[in-house]
Amino acid sequence: MLSLGVVALACGWRPGPAIAVSYRAYAEGLVQNLPKGASFRPDLEAELFAEANAYRRSQGKPPLKPSDLFLIPARAHAADMMVGNFVGHRASTGQEFDGRMRAFVGDVTRFPTLGENAARDTQKTPADKAKATSLFRQWVNSPPHRRALVSLDYIFVSTGVVQRGNNIYAVQIFFGTPREKGLFQ
Questions:
Q1: Residue 9: which pLDDT band, with cuts at 50, 70 and 90?
Q2: What is the 3-state secondary structure (H, E, C) of 31-49?
Q3: What letter does residue 93 receive in the DSSP assignment?
Q4: pTM of the entire structure?
Q5: Whether residue 17 has pLDDT greater than 50
Q6: Which residue has the higher pLDDT, 184 or 163?
Q7: Element at 150 (helix H, strand E)
Q8: Which own/partner pairs from 28-31 qualify as long-range (CB within 8 Å, at least 24 positions apart)?
Q9: CA dihedral of 8, 10, 13, 15, whole degrees rounded to 10
Q10: 3-state DSSP helix/strand/coil percent for the chain, to nearest 5?
Q11: Average pLDDT, the chain
Q12: 114-121 and 65-66 as β-strands: parallel, antiparallel, unpaired?
């Protein structure tokens, strides 16, 4: 049986704030059913992870560790931004960052630190390593995003990148060690 979110995505309908569709169902449906012509880019996810650690090294900070704990939320938000043609930390369904994370992990206070960087690159250049580097530079050139990149509070990162045409949308979710053991991969 398909959830309402999956059926809605298959029909091209997107939930509005008045519709009682859980964000998690919407996000998982979006990740499982990307619009035609869109695809996730694990190679560019790896590139952005490498860029983050290279930048941290250049700033004298320890490297981040990769984690799949927030991979679905990172990919879902990147895809949501792509579908809605926006960049930000609020989902098209109205959830702010903490609400989106709560949908996946319940009590977000288990994570002493949790943050996000989001960006897109819509230049008419190929969706390749150079485009990922250009997107990463947006974060470095933005003081709040740069602070997230080098924060010693963050130990792990999950990265999601989606491409449609030459456009890429990317999200990195940073977090520290969860308060409960066995929560992360």
A1: very low
A2: HHCCCCCEEECHHHHHHHH
A3: T
A4: 0.85
A5: no
A6: 163
A7: helix 143-150
A8: 28/3, 28/72, 28/76, 29/3, 29/5, 30/5, 30/76, 30/79, 30/80, 30/83, 31/72, 31/75, 31/76, 31/79
A9: 40
A10: 45, 15, 40
A11: 88
A12: unpaired
Residues 6+ positions from 56 with CB-CB distance below 8 Å? 62, 63, 64, 149, 150
Element (H, E) at 56: helix 42-58
Q: Which two tokens stand for residue 94?
A: 């109205």
Q: Are 174 and 87 in contact (CB under 8 A)?
A: no
173 token code pair: 């979710």
The CA distance from 154 to 38, in Å, is 30
Cα–Cα distance between 144 and 80 in angstroms, integer?
A: 22
Q: What is the pLDDT of residues 75-108, one digit of tens each?
A: 999 999 999 999 999 999 999 999 999 999 988 8
Q: Is 70 strand, coil or helix? A: coil
pLDDT tens readout for residues 113-143: 999 999 999 999 999 999 999 999 999 999 9
- For the chain, where are the E strands, in sequence order? 38-40, 65-66, 114-121, 156-164, 167-175
